[in-house]
């Protein structure tokens, strides 16, 4: 007998029929003798509907009251899911975040879980109940309803699995696992049976939006065994996210190719090369709440330097405005320019730690396809390059093949 | 400075625009220096939508889980109402039933309030907050979410007013007060400035559906000053519901004319007149959960009796079926028949206690209009008659005039 936490996202509980399908799956696991905790999101579209209602009243809704409203989305789903289980003759009981209780800090709309009181749930499990918990929500020390921010239901699932010392936390979504890259770009992309937490972190932050990055960090911290599966398929073991280092010689060096089309590049050229220049450029950008991803600084003409960074595309014109108005004259730069026709491609794999030549193979592959590299940034287990957007699919396919992922 | 509880029903908070209107009204009261607690229902239609979702999953939803779902309706409205107040620059804070906490028994979908912990609310009021509370819901001793049943938001308002020792509980609805009768039937109907609790109880149970009967009983028990007003009009003092007996000679004997088209008449004729016959007839009806309103028993032919009662129209065929199958043969009755083309008209007024001749004036008025009376039942402050449905409007108009309510 295992204790399994199963988390179902918005599309998995998007209609009454889908909710009944979830109940049937839970029933199957239950019939195998497992104890099951189900964590559900709001029905797809419901959170946006509630935010829309709030914004009809107040353009920038008070966060405490927004949480009161938005948290009802999951509350409706726990009721429906529990009804579907009871309708199958299964003992089941729902819990809101505050009923559990999932104690968070008071940072409304982006609260962090501090502690989970799992005793009532454990008691219900021991009495044979399936317990259905509202994802994405908690309660602060004063009893105010909080939400964990978008995608927070994954975090709820992992945190409950950690508190209950569950054998596995299964994240059900609309894909059947983690792939070597996006199958829509590379039809030869393969589902991975397993991936390490570190790789998953790099894949997630690079745009493979299967799991929320915070929930992966959380799982790593508490050593929760995480599995990604499809709620739309009856069979399949999904992808297991592991803590073990791969040390099998046969394992591939690279686990996957991630990419991202949401960034834009900003350059400020001919800046006098003085200490503190990076701060003078990025300080005003940060003050405007613009997130910066890649940053590089190159030596330019004598005594000057060229500074380039990437931002989210929707922030490009704002960033250019700030640089032109507040920075360019101040630091004595020659030119400011931006480009949103770029894409980022990354190869990810713990194997590259112990393999020299991974970077050079990546660069050679791109060069053989005639693809120019704009920027490079590296970490221990990934290498990212910025290229012209129009070559994105070509680059991903070529790298997928070159690193043996097609096999 | 007064402490006022204002309760707004579903149509009063039916749209974001209506909610903003509620906030403006609250702001006006607040600017006069009053402390305000606002109790809101779900937006009109929302409760039915949620019940519909539950029934899509399970034909007869588990009551605990139904309450989890349905209670979200009011939770959304407290968020929106509080946002609207904050948007007007007013300090405001929302409370769900369990945050208050409004402790109830565990009779899901029809729970009764046991105790209200008003200390947090009082503290917020003293700090200048407008407090917005979800109507219709509470929490039981075990922390399960409960609902008070349809119309329970009125009860929440009155119970909060009692707990906080409020100066007045204002019930906002889509009518501007209690009328002598339905103005759609009698254009001369007048709004009453005040009405006694006992009269209100008779009016409410007789089909003037402005206030929920339970909330009126509750107000009477705790001596809460209740006022019915329209949320759709800027001005007006509505109708105050008082505890004082009217003892002014000038006060009218009759306060209003109530009527009801929802009943049907059931007769079982030629029953041998023996002890226990009423129970043998009504027992099986009660067992089938059919509510009975008026009951009369008349002596018929020698040694037999005729028994007649009224039920809700939707229960007529069920009641006839039970009488024909389980009762008629058993008690040896001659005939069973039903009639749903009937209506009940009642005159209500505490004044009739001390005035003889009220009944005879009622019967004479109806007789002068050629209206036959089918059944009569009386209480201390009301007289009800059952007549042919087609004469309903005529009867109401004639009685309204005869008792001087047109004046």
From TrEMBL, chains A, B:
Residues engaged in binding substrate: 47, 74
Gene3D superfamilies noted in UniProt: Acetylglutamate kinase-like, VC0802-like
Positions that bind ATP: 7-10, 173-174, 179, 184, 209-210
Family matches, as SUPFAM superfamilies: ACT-like, Carbamate kinase-like
Record keywords, A-Z: Amino-acid biosynthesis, ATP-binding, Kinase, Lysine biosynthesis, Nucleotide-binding, Transferase
Domain of life, per lineage: Bacteria
Catalytic activity: L-aspartate + ATP = 4-phospho-L-aspartate + ADP
One Gene Ontology term of the molecular function aspect: ATP binding
Short name of one Pfam family: AA_kinase
One Gene Ontology cellular component annotation held by this UniProt entry: cytosol
Family per record: Belongs to the aspartokinase family.
Designated name of the protein: Aspartokinase
Organism: Candidatus Methylopumilus universalis
């Amino acid at each position: 007998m295992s204790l399994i936490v199963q988390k179902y996202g918005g599309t998995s509980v998007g209609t009454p029929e889908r909710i009944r399908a979830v109940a049937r799956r839970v029933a199957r696991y239950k019939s195998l003798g497992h104890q099951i905790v189900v964590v559900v999101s709001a029905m797809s579209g419901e959170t946006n509907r509630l935010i829309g209602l709030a914004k009809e009243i107040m353009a920038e809704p008070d966060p405490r009251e927004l949480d009161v409203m938005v948290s009802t989305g999951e509350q409706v789903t726990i009721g429906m899911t529990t009804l579907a289980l009871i309708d199958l003759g299964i003992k089941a009981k729902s819990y809101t975040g505050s009923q559990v209780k999932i104690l968070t800090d008071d940072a409304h709309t982006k609260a962090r879980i501090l502690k989970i009181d799992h005793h009532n749930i454990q008691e219900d499990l021991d009495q044979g109940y399936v317990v259905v918990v509202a994802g994405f929500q908690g309660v602060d020390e004063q009893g105010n309803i909080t939400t964990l921010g978008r995608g927070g239901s994954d975090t709820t699932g992992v945190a409950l699995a950690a508190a209950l010392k569950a054998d596995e936390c299964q994240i059900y979504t609309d894909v059947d696992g983690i792939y070597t890259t996006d199958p829509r770009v590379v039809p030869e992309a393969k589902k991975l049976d397993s991936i390490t937490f570190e790789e998953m972190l790099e894949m997630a932050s690079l745009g493979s939006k299967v799991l929320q990055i915070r929930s992966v960090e959380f799982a790593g911290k508490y050593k929760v065994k995480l599995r990604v599966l499809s709620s739309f398929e009856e069979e399949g073991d999904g992808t297991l996210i592991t803590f073990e280092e791969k040390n099998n010689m046969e394992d591939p060096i690279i686990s996957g190719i991630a990419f991202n089309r949401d960034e834009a590049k900003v350059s400020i050229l001919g800046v006098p090369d003085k200490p503190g220049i990076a701060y003078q450029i990025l300080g005003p950008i940060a003050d405007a709440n613009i997130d910066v991803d890649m940053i590089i600084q190159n030596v330019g003409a004598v005594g000057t330097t060229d500074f380039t960074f990437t931002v989210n595309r929707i922030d490009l014109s704002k960033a250019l405005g700030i640089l032109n108005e507040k920075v360019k004259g101040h630091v004595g730069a020659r030119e400011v320019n931006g480009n949103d026709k770029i894409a980022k491609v990354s190869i990810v794999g713990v194997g590259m730690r112990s393999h020299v030549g991974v970077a050079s193979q990546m660069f050679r592959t791109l060069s053989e396809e005639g693809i120019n590299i704009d920027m490079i940034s590296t970490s221990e287990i990934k290498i990212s390059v910025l290229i012209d957007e129009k070559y994105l699919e070509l680059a991903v396919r070529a790298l997928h093949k070159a690193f043996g992922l097609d096999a």
